[in-house]
Prior knowledge:
Blueprint: H1 15-20, H2 40-47, E1 62-73, E2 76-84, E3 94-100, E4 107-113, E5 124-133, E6 136-145, E7 154-155, E8 160-170, E9 178-180, E10 195-206, E11 209-218, E12 222-230, E13 237-244, H3 255-258, E14 263-270, E15 273-280, E16 283-292, E17 297-305, E18 312-318, E19 324-330, H4 336-342, E20 344-345, E21 347-348, E22 352-356, E23 362-366, E24 378-390, E25 395-402, E26 408-415, E27 418-426, E28 431-434, E29 437-440, E30 451-456, E31 459-464, E32 468-473, E33 482-500
Parallel strand pairs: 1-20
Antiparallel strand pairs: 1-2, 2-3, 3-4, 5-6, 6-8, 7-8, 8-9, 10-11, 11-12, 12-13, 14-15, 15-16, 16-17, 18-19, 19-21, 19-22, 22-23, 24-33, 25-30, 25-33, 26-27, 26-33, 27-28, 28-29, 30-31, 31-32
Amino acid sequence: xxxxxxxxxxxxxxxxxARAGVASALMPSCSRVAWGQAASSVVRDIASDPLRPQYxxxxxxxxxxxxxxxxxxxxxxxxxxxxxxxAAVWGDMHWGHAVSxxxxxxxxxxxALAPTPGGPDSEGCFSGSAVVYNGVPTVIYxxxxxxxxxxxxxxxxxxKLRETQMLATAADDNLLRWNKLETPVIAAPxxxxxxxxxxxxxPWQEADGWYLAVGSGERGKGGCALLYHSQDxxxxxxxxxxxxxxxxxxxxxxxxxxxxMWECPDFFEVDGRHCLLYSxxxxxxxxxxxYDAREHRYTATRQGVLDYGSYYAPKSFRAPDGRRILWGWIxxxxxxxxxxxxGWAGAMSLPRxxxxxxxxxxxxxxxxxxKTLRGxxxxxxxxxxxxxxxxxHLRQEIALRVAPQTKAATVxxxxxxxxxWEMQLDLTARxxxxxxxxxxxxxxxxxxxxxxxxxxxxxxxxxxxxxxxxTSRCYAVRPERTELEVVLAGDGAGELTRWPLAxxxxxxxxx
Length: 511
Ligand code: DQQ
C-alpha cells in the first residue's frame, strides 16, 4: 500500500530550514500582522493542487500545526492555530486565527500572536488555550526563547530553548488585537525538577479559583502534566503532577518520541466524567477517570488512543450548547521537500464531539454541522462480493452499514486501477486494519454505521463505530479517476450511503 501513517517529526525540520530563509519577524507584540499575500503564481498553484483539502480548515498557504485556544465569543467560533507565516515548514511559530459561525465555513483573520523580538516568546508563540476572565478573552500560551543552558527546558536534537507560560488579553471583541504581558506568568518549572519540557498550558476554573495543567515530564519518571493554581491567571502556585506517566528508560534525543514528555494536555469534564488527553510518541492518548476536586488529584481508570493515524496535539472547548468539541492537527505524511514545494502543509480536523460512555470509554463523532456540506445522498444496496462506484470528485462522506451476518468487509479507494487506501474490517475477530495500524472494532448500536469516512483530497478521516478513529494521508488519489470499492465476505450484505460534500470556499483556498 502506498498509504503511510506517519506523524511529521516536527523538530527534525525545525529552526534550520524555517529560520534560514526567513528574516526574523520584527513585529510589535500586539499588532495586527497581515500575511497571506502570497505571489499570485503561488496562489494559483495552491488553488489548483488536487491534493489540497477543500473542506478542512487550512491557512491559505504555508504551514499549520496545533489548534490553539478555541473559544466561542460574542456569537462566533474563534480558532487559533500554530502557523509559520513564512514557509510551508515548521518554524517561527505564530498564532494564526480563523473565525466561523458554524465551525465549518471560515474567514481568515490576521495573525493573532507573533513573537516579540527580545521578549520571552522571541523564538516562537507555542501552543496554548483561551478562557474568559473578568469578561475578557485571555490566552495563556508558551513562549520560547534562546537562553543560558541552566534555563533551557526544551532539549531535543534541534532545539535548546527556554519555555515560559505567557498571557495575552483581547483588546477587541473580534479578537484581532491582543495585549501581551511582557513577563511570563510562569517563568520556570517547579524548583529542583529536571523537566523534559514545559509547555502547552491548559487552564480551567473551579470553585476556588483557576487551575492549569502544563505538559511536561521529569527525567527518570516519565511524562506528566503539572498542576498549578491561581486566583487571577497572573500568579500561579505549583501544586503537584495532575497525572504522571511511567519512566521509559529511553535515551531518545527528543523525549516526546519516547513518551517521556507529554505535549498539549487537555483536561475537561464531559458526560459527568473527567478526561485528560495528551500527545506523545506521535500519538494522542485519552484517559478518563476520577478527579478529586478537594485534593485536585486525577486518577485515570481507562485509557486508549484517540486516533490511530495522522492526528496530533488536539485541543477541545465547550460550545455554547454544552458540547465538548475537539480540534486536532492533521500533519502531512510525505517528505518535507514535497510539502514545502507544494506551499501548504497541515490541516485542521473536522470538529469532533466528545463523550464518555457508561464504561468510561471516550466516544467521538463528527459534529452535525458538517452535514451542511452534504449534497444529495447516493445509496447502494450491497451483497457479498465486490462492488465499485466512481467518485465524481474527492470530497465525499461515506457511511457503510452491514447486516449482522457479515463476517468481513474491505473498503478501498482505487486510483487509476490501483488500490491507494484500504481498511479491512474483520467482524468476527472484531479487528480493523488500515495501512500499518490495527485496532479493535467496537460493538455497534442499532443502525449505527460500521464505518464513516470523510474523504477530502489527500485527507481521509475514518471512524469505526462510536469510538475508533484513524486519519490517513493519501497522496495517490486522483480527482475524477478515483473509485470506491467495497468487498463484503460470503453472505454479507449492507448499504453504502455516499454524500458528495461542498467545498467551503469558491477559490479553493478555504477562505
Ligand atoms: N507544537 C507546539 C508545541 C507543542 C507541539 C509548537 C505539539 O507547543 O508541544 O509548534 O505539536
